[in-house]
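Long-time lurker. I teach an intro course on protein structure, and each term I like to show students one example going from raw sequence to a predicted 3D structure in token notation. This year I'd like something fresh instead of my usual example. Would anyone be willing to generate the tokens for the chain below so I can use it in lecture? Attribution to the forum is fine with me.
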Amino acid sequence: MTIIDRPETQSTDEIVDELHTWLEENWDPDLSVAVWWERLGTSGWAAPTLATNAYGRGVSRADGVRIQSEIASFGALGAPGGLGLLLAAPTIAKHGTQEQIDTMLRDIVTGQRAWCQLFSEPGAGSDLAGLTTKAMQDGDEWIVNGQKVWTSLGQIADLGMLIARTAPDAPKHAGISYFGIEMNQPGVELRPLKEMTGHAMFNEVFLTDARVANSSMIGDRNNGWAVTNSTLAFERAGLGSGGSGAGGMSASPGQIAGDLDKRVGDLAPGRSETSKGSAASKSRKRDSAAKTLISFATSNGTINDLTIRQDLARLHTMGEVGRFNAERMKAARGVGRDIAGMANISKLAMSEMVRLQRDLGLRIVGAQGMLHAYDAEQKAVNDEATGNPFLSFVTGTALYAQAPPIYGGTDQIQRNIIGERVLGLPKEPGDDRSVPFSSLPKNA
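-- Reply from a regular --
Happy to contribute to a lecture. Here you go:
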């Protein structure tokens, strides 16, 4: 693999200058997506916050976000997104062997394989350690049986982050192992779960004598709970307010999505006149939800409602607090420190912001908020009838707002973690950490 040596004193501007030089030499819109992602991933620019031995450049999270933004403004296609880059890659970099980094992680940063998350179960959501999916060893493989649910984008995933019980007679948290399991095999069945938004991003997954190689176990046997907590921390940090990266995906990674053979220039955003690190580029940000809602309220006169104006200011303030918290984390990590519980605080703040966006949006659009378009044809009808092409943004947010306080760990779980691990408050009484899981009542 390619090892990138980065000077410890390299500044953000020097990193950006190096990136622009590399882009000028390597970007070619006539390449296929696969060839471009191979260049981007093996050079360290796809996942720059990872360590240099893990196809990264060891930069800070803030510099990583800046790099994504600069690639987009240059007009090149950004890194292969999805749960592989967000969750699996940093987990493998932290807990995997170098062989797993050189194979599994390489396939993530180069977009060759897409990942999904096989964590939650019908009886193990907030109490994730209560999972009952079992993996029994059979020579160099494990045979897996069980059911998972709320599996995002499982329909286009090549691999899944699977946690399964490998020692049922061990205490609840001690008998779990973490695997990277092939999704496209006999014994893995996906069924889509249609949401009230009209989409079906989530799936339930049934595992019946599915197989996973022992070499695909990430971390030590029966130590999967520690690996799982790392994945959850990466998830909460990625979902939290102030922690989002630049831009969305216009191409999907993996063998199933069908984008790897496409011409990369057809999927790239197009070059911005403000690229190459100009002052305008450095200050450019995507419009926030607060700014979007302010525009709505201004156009229909509801901006004159004092309570709406007050809540718009509150939404803007929450976004700024999230941004400042991200800067605090950057400063802390710059001197080798951390801020305990920040990922959980950010996740809680994001949930609160989405709820506020929901309520504000519906108050601003009024009775039109009862009209939701579930497809492009319905949207066209609504747009013509209401004269408001942004109505679907408001109604879509309103329907979706119930999800963020649940996925990635419920708000209640986040508060428990902050209370117990950050504030040092006593844990809930119980003996689930000493009694064998097989002896515990179901979901105890």
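Some talking points for your students: Residues 306-334 form the longest helix (29 residues). The CA atoms of residues 159 and 182 lie 5 Å apart.
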